Recover the amino acids of this structure.
């Protein structure tokens, strides 16, 4: 129970609220009016009864000090993720909120900080959303550590990024761009444009990840480039990013020829290397991509990463379900690791085969000329060539999860 004691001072009466805290310590707080003292006594008793009491001294640590400690206490963070968090905190959180005590930060202060960050135009709205999410996550830990009762980050939608639709290429444009690349980089465009691997996943590929016999490609690592240019190899972006996908049959021969010509003959040999056999650097790949993009007639704003969106859209055009697309792209949401990484192998092989048909059609090679089937009618496809019509037998018509076009984020 809290007890209120009145005492006289030169400045007038004072009211001391004394109580025994859950941690066993005797605590007190002084007020000028009896009314304020009564309110505090009622509140503190209610907090202790419902287990919501926090030590008022525990939260007397600045946002900057607590966030720095928070980062140090997370050894499992990927190196690149740690760098990103540190940059966001130093650049956009600490200058305004860094000196504020954790237990003194209010929802209003958070709202004003976020609003100023967005209005200033110094960062994009998406960067502001990322900074807000980092701060919210750190303060959620502060709640768990019993430094504060509630998280002051309560802005609806402040942590949501608005992803703009990215452009996609046609099959013909992907093939043209690949042909315009130096021979040792030709395959990297094909794998990005038809298998949807991220650039870090491509640069992290090793011979052991390729199964030519069964036409499979395993993604289990990616290469990160840190802010000072250092290269490190780590796991994929998410758990769902660790995956094995079926290759379109036309790519099996392409990969075999590439491995024979440009890769070291060892299981750990990188699939993609520099022109002289050294490490392939991202700025070198980017320089070659810009030139190939121009040859293919793609717009200046078409990034190498947009080849991934292209692969996703082409896979969706085969009638793949959302679940199958999530598996193939290694894409994660809040529950992606559970819901999407177990796509069936049979459907994945079908998707790969359908992609092969799209490519062969764009190359002007009909299926009957390959001796697979007799002549069949074809429909014009927006993918850049003629493709066999999708029927309910092979497109999964009727399945509510089927989708024709889907362009997912990174």
């Amino acid at each position: 129970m809290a007890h209120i004691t009145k005492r006289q001072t030169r400045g007038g009466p004072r009211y001391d609220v004394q109580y025994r805290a859950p941690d066993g310590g005797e605590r007190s707080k002084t007020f000028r009016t009896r009314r304020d003292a009564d309110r505090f006594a009622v509140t503190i008793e209610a907090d202790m009864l419902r287990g919501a009491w926090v030590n008022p001294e525990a939260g007397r640590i600045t946002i900057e000090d607590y966030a720095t400690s928070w980062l140090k206490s997370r050894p499992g963070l990927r190196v690149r993720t740690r760098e990103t968090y540190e940059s966001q905190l130093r650049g956009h959180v600490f200058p305004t909120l860094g000196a504020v005590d954790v237990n003194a930060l209010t929802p209003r202060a958070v709202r004003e900080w976020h609003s100023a960050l967005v209005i200033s135009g110094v960062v994009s709205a998406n960067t502001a959303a990322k900074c807000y999410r980092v701060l919210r996550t750190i303060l959620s830990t502060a709640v768990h550590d019993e430094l504060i009762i509630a998280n002051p980050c309560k802005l609806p939608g402040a942590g949501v990024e608005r992803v703009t639709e990215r452009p996609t290429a046609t099959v013909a444009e992907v093939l043209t761009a690949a042909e315009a690349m130096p021979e040792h980089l030709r395959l990297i465009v094909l794998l990005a444009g038809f298998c949807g691997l991220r650039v870090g996943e491509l640069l992290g590929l090793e011979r052991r990840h390729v199964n030519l016999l069964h036409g499979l490609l395993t993604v289990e690592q990616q290469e990160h480039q840190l802010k000072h240019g250092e290269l490190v190899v780590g796991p994929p972006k998410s758990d769902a990013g660790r995956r094995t996908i079926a290759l379109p049959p036309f790519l099996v021969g392409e990969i075999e020829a590439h491995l024979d010509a440009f890769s070291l003959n060892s299981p750990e040999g990188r699939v993609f290397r520099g022109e002289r056999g050294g490490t392939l650097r991202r700025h070198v790949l980017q320089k070659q991509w810009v030139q190939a993009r121009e040859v293919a007639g793609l717009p200046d704003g078409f990034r190498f990463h947009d080849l991934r969106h292209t692969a996703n859209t082409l896979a969706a055009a085969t009638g793949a379900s959302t679940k199958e697309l999530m598996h193939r792209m290694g894409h994660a949401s809040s529950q992606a690791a559970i819901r999407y990484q177990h796509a069936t192998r049979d459907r994945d092989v079908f998707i790969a085969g359908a992609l092969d048909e799209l490519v062969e059609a764009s190359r002007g090679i009909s299926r009957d000329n390959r001796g697979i089937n007799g002549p069949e009618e074809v429909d014009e496809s927006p993918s850049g060539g003629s493709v066999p019509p999708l029927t309910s037998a092979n497109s999964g018509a009727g399945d509510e999860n089927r989708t024709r076009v889907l362009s997912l984020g990174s």
